Structure formats: C-alpha cells, structure tokens
Amino acid sequence: MKATCGAQALFIVGCGGCAKKCATGDEAAILALSDSLKKAGKIVLGTVIVDSACDMRLLKRDLLKNEAFLKSDKAVVLACGAGAGALSALTDKKIVTGLNSKYLGTVERANITHKFCGVCAQECVLNETAGICPKTRCSKGLISGSCGGYANGKCEADIMKDCAWCLIYNKRK
Amino acid sequence: MKFKDKLKTNDFIITAELFPPKGTDISGVLERAEIIAPFVDAVNITDNQRASMRVGSLAMCAKLLQKGIEPVLQIACRDKNKIALQSELLSASVLGIDNILIISGDHPNAGDCKDAKPVYDLDPVRLLKAARGLEAGADLSGKPLKGSPKFCLGAVVNPQANPDGLQVEMFNKKVEAGAEFFQTQVIFDAGAFKKFYEKLPKNGKIKVLVGVSLIHSVKFMQFLQTLPGVVIPESVQSRMLGAQDPLDEGIKICAELIKSLKSFAHGVHIMAIGKEEHIPKIIEASKIQEELN
Known about the structure:
Chain A has 173 residues and is an alpha/beta fold. Chain A has seven helices and six strands, in the order βααβααβαβββαα. The radius of gyration of chain A is 20 Å and the shape is elongated. By secondary structure, chain B is of the alpha/beta class. Chain B contains eleven helices and eight strands. Chain B has helices at 3-6, 27-36, 57-66, 82-95, 124-135, 164-177, 190-197, 218-224, 234-242, 246-262, 279-292, and strands spanning 13-18, 42-45, 71-76, 99-103, 152-157, 181-186, 207-213, 267-271. In chain B, strands 1-2-3-4-5-6-7-8 form an eight-stranded parallel beta barrel, surrounded by six helices. In chain B, helix 4 crosses helix 5 (124-135), helix 9 (234-242) runs antiparallel to helix 10 (246-262) and helix 10 crosses helix 11 (279-292). The interface between A and B is medium-sized, with 22 and 29 residues.
C-alpha cells in the first residue's frame, strides 16, 4: 500500500502463470487487492491477467494499447520480479510490485511448494547429485558434499529440514 | 619437531584448541596457550566458532608464533568469499603459519548474529583444492603467483554422524583434495570411533586426530548435547550426574578416553572449551592410566 502513495488511479496486472498457480496473481487475488485499494480511497481503472507476465511479447500485446493501463498513475503487478521487471522495461509508467516472491517453486499440491532450484546458472550439478540440488537445498549450499553437522538425516541449521547431502547419498545407494 | 614432521612419525599426536575472545583483551588466551604448549604438538585457534564473532584466528595464530608456540589456523568457509579465503591463505603463509584446518563452519543460525549472510562461496573440498593450487603457483582464476605458499592441510570429519557412510565419502573426497590430517567432532566413546575408523581407507599417511572434550560440569554436558553431531553415552552421563566433583570426574573420563584411543588412534585433539588450564592434568592422567595397565 505504501508503494502506491502519490498515485490515485491504479491498474492491476495479474499473471496467468506461476502466480496464478500460487493463487497470488489470479482473479481472486486481483479482486482482493482491488477491494483493499478502493477501501484506501484509490481508484482501480482496470485489471488484466497476462498469460505469462515474464513474457514481454504478451505484456506488449495485452497492455501497451490498453487505455485504462495507459491512463493509470501506477500499475500494481501481481507477479514475480521477472514479470514486474519485464513491464518496467517496456514502459515509463511507475510499477509497483505487489508480491514478494520467495523462490522458483515446485508445486506439490495446492499451497504446498518447494524450493528445488535456485536458477543459479552456474555449473549445474544435478547430473552428479541424483537430481537433488545441494546449492539450493543444503543450508550451507555446499557443492562437494556434506558437512558433519547432520543428525539422522536432518540438517544442523534446521532440524525440520532434510539434509540435502543425506538425500543425495541415500538416493545414490 | 614441527607438527607437519610429527604427522609423518608413528608418535601419538596431541593438539588442543583455544578460542579467541570477544574483545581485544587476549591476555587470557595467551596465558592458557603458554600453559598447554609444553604438553601439545600444536595449538589450534578456532575461527569465530559457533558462528559467534570474535578476534580472528589469523591474528591469534600470529601472536602464538611470536611466543614460539606452533599454531594451527582454522579457516571456516562460512564468512569469506573465494577472494578473501585465498587471501587469508597467502596472509597465513606470509606470517609463517603453515598448518591450516579447513572447515565449513557452523551455520550463522547457531550464532549470535543469525541474520549474517552465510557465504560458503567455496566448500571445504574446494578450499583444500584452492590451497593446493596456490602451492602450485596459481590462484583460482589461473593467475600466476609471485612466490608460492607451502601448507600442512587438515580437514574435519564426524565419526558419529548418521549416515556415517556419507562421512567416509567426505573423508575420501577431502584426502583427494589435499588433506594431510583430520580432526574429528568430539567423541566420548572410543568403541564408536573405532567402528568408524575401520571404515576409512588406510594408507598410513593420513593422520586422524580424535576430538575429545573435558566435561567440567553437568550444565556443560547438557550444552554439549545440543551441539550438532555430539553423542554422549549413557555411561558417561551417569558418571557425571553422580559425581561429587564433576570437574575431577570429567578429567578422569577424558584421560581414560585418551588412554583407550592410544592403542589404535593416531592422536587426539582436545577441546576443553574454556577450561584449557586443565589440559596438562588430563594428559598426565592419561599417561598414568597407561602405566597402570
């Protein structure tokens, strides 16, 4: 809400990709945000859900000729940083990111996601680690193997968490 | 005899560790170093142990050297990126510190600055390789060095971590990366260590110093039980709980353990954690134990 300061007329951009799966950028999320903005005295000029907010081609198609979007003071983006960044690169309009994305999630079921990949683009080791990423799943991000702090397969930094290297070791056996 | 040369002998090796203070008054650490120095082959200085900010290991090691005490510099991968880690290795060499113990380091979650960034830019295996690379005359980017260091490199292993097969795997990786000696997590059961030790490949060159600790009070025993990978057998727990003089009992327990390790292990690394002044008593008691048998 703080980031919308100084703007009266807003436009909300949802995302039909990951944010929709996480229920943070779908119709219901847009409606909820729209209600709170209105309660705060703002005007919501329009909303749209882009199939994938991280795809600049789709943003161009869906937004750059949208009159409500063009008239708005600021656009609130309910997508990850890739979506907000894409829109920011396409327009001079002030962009407000409505979400605080935690990670690239693997969906197990509704509302249960896991961080299995850090999209680090640096020497991917999955071929050597039985498909389990130690950079992402080991609390210390150790690439060559475990530390000595695990106990019964759990991590020293968080006993609720599996030690990534124990998972790798057991899967390789 | 230098620590590196001692590792090449069949002598039983004894090292002990001291931790630097939180603050600039290092007099207590230096006093304790002088008390234990005649009884040990080298004194290991911890690197911000338990992820708690203290005087740096490098500075304390340099101070020990000035007093003629041979130090082992601990370097944790937790706090420095690969530039700082390599630089630390070169700095150690320039100061005349050759013995380096490379550890990952407890996660910041364990310390007093829990929001500190866990760096781990290199892990211990990679840092061992980097150190060997520096010896060969090049840094991690392949740039040549003007003057190369020479190290005696150590690493750590935890005999009581479950699954232990993963620790055997890590032992082998660290040996391959250049480790010449190992220090283990604290153990209180010689039999449990022996079981693990028998799983390690034997080439006679790599020395394993078994971590032993002085339990000086029941409260301290309870603290030790919270540390990752520390297992205290029931027999030790009941001896401490029933002891009239817990410190004296702790010294006996530690001395007996060292004595039983002498029959098959290469040496011990004593972690007396704040009670280092009792280390000479422990070592003397372990010798008396040995003579009695």
